[in-house]
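Hey team,

Sharing the DH domain-containing protein run so nobody has to redo it. Sequence (340 residues) first:
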Amino acid sequence: VSFDFLTGLLDTIQSSWKLSSLAAVLSKFQESVCCSHHEYCLNYSSANLYLNNLKTREDFGTFLKWCEQNELCKRLHLSDLLVSPLQRLTKYPLLLRGIWKRSNDAAEKQSVQAIIKQVDNSICDLEGKVKWLESFQKFQQIQEMIVWPPIWERNKKVFLPESLRHLLKDNMAEGLLSPVNRQLLNEGRLSLAGATKFLDVYLFLFDDLLLITKIKSAKKKPAALDASLRSPSPNPELHGLGRDGTVCSVLDQPIPLDRLVLKNIDPFHSAGCGLQNAFLIIHQNRYQQCIGIFTLQAPSEAVKKTWLSHIKTAATAYRHVIEPPQPSLRRLPVNESSEI
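Structure output:
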């Protein structure tokens, strides 16, 4: 426990000396400390990222070095001082348990035990808030990077007169990734085999669908991507693409995991096709008809196995939570005939 913490606790005790017991003082201290720590922890990531952006400025770097030389900093950098409240929060239960062990009054021990439970619940609640905030910021950045082209751009065979295109809203699919209960299980860059060349694609595997996007350089960097720098990066690779002004243009419609068939391509057949570390993603409609097929190539065998494992696990889990298929229709399991 740090000296600053004990000083703050002593100040609280002195200001609350009229309270009848130590338990009452700790209860008041718990109410004020937990609330302020919640607010601080939820804003820590944004503050830390903002600090890293400021460090690129020469004038701020000079000023920061001058401030850190102050004896009050105790040779700690600003980044160390920012993280210390987070580290201190986990020590509160240990301190309270130490007080509980040394307390002789039964009623006081019961009150301290109740405070310990409140602090533990507060920390658990904070962890839930932090996870929700990280998930929200992650999806926010993904939404800012994903571009949903209209159907006539994705499929050249689709004909729609120019005068009728206003009937289809261009942003109809932009809210697809809005639900905060959706989880991102895996993401990364792969290669999509085409008739004459390979295409750089970026895959997003969610707990209910797979989204295949094409990596595309934007003509100019969108302003939304600049705003995303204020939030934590979901993935360093994706963050790098965002900073370069690159966007992820949706290549085809999202593939629900209950309509997805996964097939591994063994090295023998891969070599015969001029591929390495390849596997197939087959998109089926509700009538078991193939409406899309994607031949993907991973940069290494390890990356390929990771994708196969994540997709298979996610598809199996999703099939367990949705309604079972109709008895008259035979659904192809995700792992049936999985080897080519």
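Residues 221-230 have pLDDT under 50 and may be disordered.

Ping me if you want the raw files.
A.
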